[in-house]
Amino acid sequence: MQVRAKRKENSEEGARKSALLPTIPCLRFSYIKPAFNSLLALIISNNNNNLCVTLLIVAHSLALSPFDSFDQAVKKLLSCKMAKNVGILAMEIYFPPTCVQQEALEVHDGASKGKYTIGLGQDCMAFCTDVEDVISMSLTAVNSLLEKYGVDPKQVGRLEVGSETVIDKSKSIKTFLMQIFEKCGNTDIEGVDSTNACYGGTAALFNCVNWVESSSWDGRYGLVVCTDSAVYAEGPARPTGGAAAIVMLIGPDAPIVFESKYRGSHMAHAYDFYKPNLASEYPVVDGKLSQTCYLMALDACYKHFCAKYEKFEGRQFSISDAEYFVFHSPYNKLVQKSFARLVFDDFTRDASSIDEAAKEKFAPFSSLSGNESYQSRDLEKVAQQVAKPFYDSKVQPTTLIPKQVGNMYTASIYAAFVSLLHNKNSELAGKRIVMFSYGSGLTATMFSLKLQEGQHPFSLSNIASVMSVDEKLKSRIEVAPEKFVETLKLMEHRYGGKDFVTSKDTSCLAPGTYYLTEVDSMYRRFYSQKATEGAPANGSIVNGH
Q: What positions does the domain Hydroxymethylglutaryl-coenzyme A synthase N-terminal occupy (predicted)?
């Protein structure tokens, strides 16, 4: 009788355990002893819940489990869900309302007609006046995103900033932004700034995505800020300036999902663009070398990206496998050359996307070495001709903001992506977007995104609507080139300076915009927020307080 009762008890216990198995999510590494970690990591990477449970049962049978009972293990498992479909939930963009037309700048600089508009492919350039900088732009963009999406600052657990604009050699831009979160009692936020030319924003983005995907994630949002003011000394590089801040909210079940397994990177040492003079905001630029480095990095990243795609998918990748391509955009002409380079790369790989007519045009260049191909103007011309129809459909929709605002350094690639969302948001569900991020010095990565419409408010259509790109572009104030040059001279004089008060002229700024009011005798920077209608202006907020 006792034996029969024991068998019944064991049978019921087994049935109860079996019923629980399908509902148990993936296990985190720390709950199984180290001998099982590598196997468990493989299982988790494939989101196989049943195998996780099987491994747990084996661990119990071998006395390797840290849990006293199966019930305790199940409870722990149920509390440890791994994030899925991690990506961008929301975005916001801010750029200064002051801008100068490139045509007018051509006349002012005595340049030949079309040098900036056709030669560089640029239309307009935004710039900061004395009341704006990368910190004020970031404060504005972060505050705007949180307000528009109703995100409680306490829901943010990681804040990463990418920038190459040096305000302080020790104090990060992230710490300035913490003032928004401190007011709400949230100081438990990981992350700092990432810096390497125009690549820092991508590093910050990967850090946030990796955090949400990891066992360290605490269930809160990640927030990424890309902010820069690109300015150059008088000369041929000056028209390639610009300024902006872009903010991205990172979390699971996103409409913009990262396909991290295809990511391909290239890192090397080069002096193509750098800022060795800490007394000046202006870079040292080797324009010809910088373009060559960009294209070399593009080739290397595409090679690695394709190899990983082919490894996981079992077939060759070509430009026909993605609906859109988004590039870091110092100036539009380089974007045109870059996409054409990918088309030529597909030719050298004998990809199916290249038809016989294109192969015939590329044939004379098939024997060129890599270095020779980067310098060949004939190849560049032919490649752009072959790529033109693909460019018009796959790249042109990404070019609006970079052409209108200019080079935004870390924000440039994401401003191009914002342009795509603005132009094509109703057509993007189910589409793959390939992104190429480059930072001089040099660092580069090619990665891909898979889009789905998502659920309001975190939907593609709402992201595009909330950013109000058309409204922001149309409400800008065009200034004469003389005013632009005058502003840069003032900023040169004040760079690294102290004990001054700005003009506090906010007439061009929209309500809710943050602006710089003064830098005191201890180099501390004070900012205020322009009042919204019917509301008093916020009190000053200050560096370090």
A: 83-255
